[in-house]
Design goal:
Elements lengths: L2 E5 L5 H8 L2 E6 L8 H8 L4 E5 L6 H7 L5 E5 L8 H6 L3 E3 L6 H16 L2 H9 L20 E5 L3 H9 L6 E5 L5 H5 L3 E2 L2 H7 L2 E4 L13 H6 L5 E4 L8 H9 L5 E4 L10 H4 L4 E3 L8 H19 L9
Parallel strand pairs: 1-2, 1-3, 3-4, 4-5, 6-7, 6-9, 7-8, 9-10, 10-11, 11-12
Helix pairs in contact: 1-13, 2-3, 5-7
This protein binds (2R)-2,3-dihydroxypropanoic acid (DGY).
Length: 318
């Protein structure tokens, strides 16, 4: 095939190899902070297809920049809140994503945050290395039990369900909020409840919904106030589903016990007031970051892109 494709930044080599066999021109944008807006806009121009990721703001201006030949925007990831879907649709550009393959990695990381916040893993690591540890103490660094507690899942899609199924080994009671009943969660005895009940009953509240106009600031001052003072909030979904200012107040004033965060309102910025809180574990958006998962994401993004360029139906149209 004779295609001109732009990949906005480095992705796993094996996935790129599949792509390069089908392109007459393939350019890869820079990694990290060198990927400025101007570099992105210049790289997009005149392409038949673009493989982008959640770090690229594919708004109307960017979609305008790709030009009339572009047939497909294949996103490396499941969330598509970085893409102006209406602008793409109006230009006849197909948008695809990579659902499914990152479910387990993201559910695993959610559990890493549950365990880390409940048992003070990151604080303990810092303390153990500090040279200040003087030996075992009955009252040292006491965390919270997880076993037999209540897990509240907000958003019972693929990832929320996978998080819930992992809680069975901890003999947890599960309540969940979802547009539809989840047969898999129901099968392990979960209760479908409304948001208020979920927040009020759960010892761990974990968020798993896409970012949309309806979910932006879904968890704000009022909702944080409905949680138990002993509860922990986990967010591996999208930062803006939580009102970060309200969260900082709730954490600083002890309205809730802690938070485990993989995502932030204005990534990569993490507010200083949040970063300095001891009852928060902060990760740099690592949900899908395993070698195996990122390779599968790359391969699926490439397969979607090539399907559209060869006139076939995309595997994962958005
Ligand atoms: C996604 O895919 O939406 C994640 O946030 C990044 O893997």
């Amino acid at each position: 095939m004779d295609h001109n494709v732009y990949v906005t930044g480095p992705i796993p080599e094996l996935a790129l190899a599949d792509l390069s066999r089908h392109c007459s021109q393939l350019d890869i944008g820079p990694a990290g902070s060198t990927a400025t807006r101007d570099v992105l806009l210049a790289g997009l121009a005149g392409r038949d297809a673009v493989l982008c990721s959640i770090r690229d703001r594919m708004d109307a201006q960017a979609i305008q920049a790709v030009g009339p030949s572009c047939q497909v925007l294949a996103s490396f990831g499941v969330g598509v809140d970085h893409i102006d879907l209406e602008a793409a649709r109006s230009r006849g550009i197909v948008v695809t994503n990579t659902p499914g393959v990152l479910t387990d990695a993201t559910a695993d990381l959610t559990w890493a945050l549950i365990l880390a916040t409940a048992r003070q893993i990151t604080q303990g690591d810092r303390f153990a290395r500090s040279g200040r540890w003087e030996g075992w103490e009955p009252l040292q660094m006491l965390g919270l039990d997880i076993t037999n507690k209540t897990l509240g899942i907000v958003g019972a899609g693929r990832i929320g369900t996978a998080v819930g199924l992992r809680s069975v080994g901890f003999r947890m009671k599960i309540c969940y909020v979802g547009h539809r009943a989840s047969a898999e969660l129901d099968a392990v005895g979960a209760d479908r409840v409304d948001l208020r009940q979920c927040l009020a009953e759960a010892d761990f509240v974990t968020l798993h919904m896409p970012l949309t106009d309806d979910t932006r600031h879904l968890v704000g001052e009022v909702e944080l106030g409905q949680m138990k003072a002993s509860a922990i909030l986990i967010n591996t979904a999208r930062g803006p589903v939580v009102d970060e200012k309200a969260l900082i107040v709730a954490l600083s004033e002890g309205q809730i016990a802690g938070a485990g965060l993989d995502v932030y309102e204005r990534e990569p910025a993490i507010p200083e007031e949040l970063a300095k809180l001891e009852n928060v574990v902060c990760l740099p958006h690592l949900g899908s970051a395993t070698i195996e998962t990122r390779l599968k994401m790359g391969q699926i993004a490439v397969a979607n892109l090539l399907a559209v360029l060869s006139g076939k139906a995309p595997i994962n149209p958005v």
